């Protein structure tokens, strides 16, 4: 049985030291996943802090809801990388680290005097992971920007829509989130290789690449048929499995449903009071329904609108073995009992706020703890603890560094 939330056990990455140069979403989400698995993640921040600290909605002097989500359970060390003394401290931290993660524009680490090549030369066991929009190698490597550029370039944003509807965003930072999960997995693979060979590696991860691998089978379909078959856009109406989409009930709420076989289509036709459609050559087979999909979807949509409520529509579809569900708003799952029972929503105690359910790594493991290790840190909250207590900087030297502005610690 998987471990239950609240059970104090070591995580899979307990004892792993991660130096985190990341900011905004993709990198911080990757290192947040590592932290949920027990890694000691030391987040290095500029004196002004990660830019995400300063966006709305604020929940503290240097904390907001964005930063709180992506940085739970980390320790914050604030320093000025323009200072040679601060850079040398960073080298020393990386010398004793297992993993380094950064998501600057390619070349930035080198410009800071902290090139990954030099970090790995000093520490051959180091697993270094860079995350960027298009990666450090390739014709697009010099293009910089946020995740929505990758979403646009990948074709996935275009696929997200019906007919002539404009392409749209996804309701989440999809490119960043996808890159974060791929980086998390790649780091695990690199750590396994190191356990066998004793040698680390460098991972050059692109959110553009990550998104392309998320596209279903549109690319193979196009390439394997020499362009003769195209997947089609997929907003509320699936182009290949018909009918499989989103319908609106009489109460204005939406239901997602899927009719995957001819037999189920016949059941749907009976339910709609249109049994003759099941034998109509325009709709009787899966191929025919694809060829006439707009007509099929229009018929289903017109019928669904006559059903009083979405819940009633789900019940009716379920009675004839058609899989369906009411489309929920995200506010309906912020304390979902199923998610809480699995640890995907886990309690975190935030100073001045109290216990709050936060999304966590959705990786329950038998005998291992997977959960947030604590609240997001204040800027520089752990600067003294890490540099003096662990790196061995003397108290006198630390005070000098504070006075010079090379390092910053949180104000009590």
Task: Please explain how this structure is put together.
- With 412 residues, the protein is α/β, with parallel strands linked by helices.
- The protein has two domains: 17-213 and 334-408, Rossmann fold (3-Layer(aba) Sandwich); 244-248 and 254-326, formyl-coa transferase, domain 3 (2-Layer Sandwich).
- Helices cover 36% and strands 16% of the residues.
- The chain has 17 helices and 14 strands.
- The chain has helices at residues 26-36, 65-70, 84-95, 108-111, 116-122, 147-154, 156-159, 174-197, 207-212, 218-224, 262-271, 286-291, 293-304, 310-319, 337-342, 383-387, 395-404; strands spanning 17-20, 40-45, 58-60, 63-64, 75-79, 99-102, 127-132, 201-206, 244-248, 254-258, 323-326, 345-350, 354-359, 407-408.
- The longest helix has 24 residues, at 174-197.
- The mean pLDDT is 95.
The percent range for helix content is 25-40%
Q: How do the strands of the widest beta sheet line up side by side?
A: 8-7-6-1-2-5-14
How many β-strand stretches?
A: 14
Tally of individual domains: 2
Relevant CATH superfamily of the largest domain: Crotonobetainyl-coa:carnitine coa-transferase, domain 1
Q: DSSP strand (E) fraction?
A: 15-25%
CATH topology of the largest domain: Rossmann fold
Structural class: alpha/beta
Mean pLDDT across residues: 95
Shape: elongated
| Backbone CA Rg | 26 Å
pLDDT under 50 segments (min length 5)?
A: none
Cα separation of the termini: 43 Å
